[in-house]
Amino acid sequence: MRIGELAQRASVSVRALRYYEEQGLLLSTRSPSGQRHYGEPAVDRVQLIQHLYSAGLTSKTIADLLPCVDAKVSTPESRARLTFERDRIDAQIAELTQARDKLDAMIALTGTPASGCAYV
């Protein structure tokens, strides 16, 4: 499939796909006229890349981990890296949960609004 179709099917921009290629995260073949072509597995690959980015992983970390994903192997190094990233995400979740709890407490407050409140 061509780059536009992959972008549409994976719900990403063409620019993102080009960036993934620049970072070595996604491979394409080229037609004689230079157009990028991707196989069907590229849709799943792009969605995986998107999930890893949304979890806060950097392109370098993703590039380091994808060979293990492709080979369907887990090394002590890849497990350690994944554990580190999971623990980092858990810490972010805890911080966000605390922030949400504080917002919930403020929402639950009743009574007369304090003076100087911008949203009275």
Automatic annotation (TrEMBL):
The answer to keyword Cell membrane applying to this record is no
The UniProt entry, under InterPro entries, shows: DNA-bd_dom_put_sf, MerR-type_HTH_dom, MerR_fam
What is this protein's record name? DNA-binding transcriptional regulator, MerR family
One matching Pfam family, short form?
A: MerR_1
Q: Where is the HTH merR-type domain?
A: 1-68
GO MF term set: DNA binding; DNA-binding transcription factor activity
Question: PANTHER family, from UniProt?
Answer: MERR FAMILY REGULATORY PROTEIN, REDOX-CYCLING DRUG-SENSING TRANSCRIPTIONAL ACTIVATOR SOXR
Q: Which UniProt keywords apply?
A: DNA-binding
Q: Name the source's superkingdom.
A: Bacteria
TM segments?
none
